[in-house]
Amino acid sequence: MSWSRRLATLLPRAVERDDGGTEPDPRFTFANERTFLAWSRTALALVVAGLGIVQLLPPFPGVPVGRHLLGLPLIALGAVLAVAAYVEWVRSQRALRRGDPLPNSVLPWILAATVTGIAIIAAIVLLISALR
Amino acid sequence: MTTPQGRAQSGDDPEERDPGLARERTSLAWTRTAISFAAVGGVVLKENVLTGLLVLAVAPVVWQLGRVSRSQAARTDLPTVGATRLFVIALTIVAVSLLCFLVAIFGRAAPLGLR
To answer: pLDDT tens track of chain A, all 132 residues?
Structure first.
């Protein structure tokens, strides 16, 4: 399947018209929706954390861009996480209709990589700031 | 009769007797998501008033989107797959993070800033 056609299958219209398999147990549909919403809130939490770091923290002495270095990637990854959560929801809903095993989720991986990366940057910024 | 894919008719599991609990949990999750949008709006408000108000205005809209799953409480048929609603939520978060990105860089001077 080409790249653009694969993207088209993610659009809400394509998902709502999907008639492969059978309608899953409504509880599964609700659970899938709640999972998406929980990831959305996680994405918003990343955004708010990034904004809080940039706007509310006092500047790091000696590292003028330190706060932006920590905050801006968090905000950007919030957007990435929201899109990934939607893609994940579509894939899970498809699998539920067809009775397939649920696809592996990349979302925990994105979140873990984000937190690890930001923690490393924070440690470096703090170290530079302390050594001055 | 209970099949993995079919709908449960009876059983000892309270979930099977009343799938409305799942609907209720989902509706609560929508409320929490709306509150999260309001929280983001509150933080933005501190730095950039107009952008903050814009993000705050999203919260009641999200809450209203969640009402769609609530309004089905009286219906016994299957919930519709709310792909459009979820798509809108994902796009809204992308837009909100773009606004927050601009506010983080430009602060008060961001496009919708109130001096």
So the answer is: 688 888 888 888 888 887 788 888 888 888 999 999 999 999 999 999 999 999 888 888 888 889 999 999 999 999 999 999 999 999 999 999 898 889 889 999 999 999 999 999 999 999 999 988
CB pairs under 8 A between A and B: 142
Domain that includes residue B63, residue range: 20-73+80-109
User: How many folded domains does chain B comprise?
Assistant: 1
Burial of A61 (0-12, 13-18, 19+ CB in 10 A): exposed
- Residue B109 is classified by DSSP as G
Q: Which of A26, A37, A50 is nearest residue B19 as measured by Cβ atoms? A: A26
Dihedral sign, Cα of residue B31, residue B32, residue B35, residue B37 = negative
- Residue B84 placed within a domain: yes
Mutate to test the interface with A, among B86, B94, B96 (most CBs of A within 10 A): B86
Interface test with B, best of A18, A41, A107 (most B CBs within 10 A): A41
Report yes or no: B81 at the A interface, CB cutoff 8 Å. Answer: yes
- Residue A60 phi/psi, 5° resolution? -75, 125
Residue B10 lies in a domain: no
Least CB-CB distance to A12: which of B29, B87, B104?
B87
ipTM of the modeled complex: 0.90
How much is the pTM? Answer: 0.85
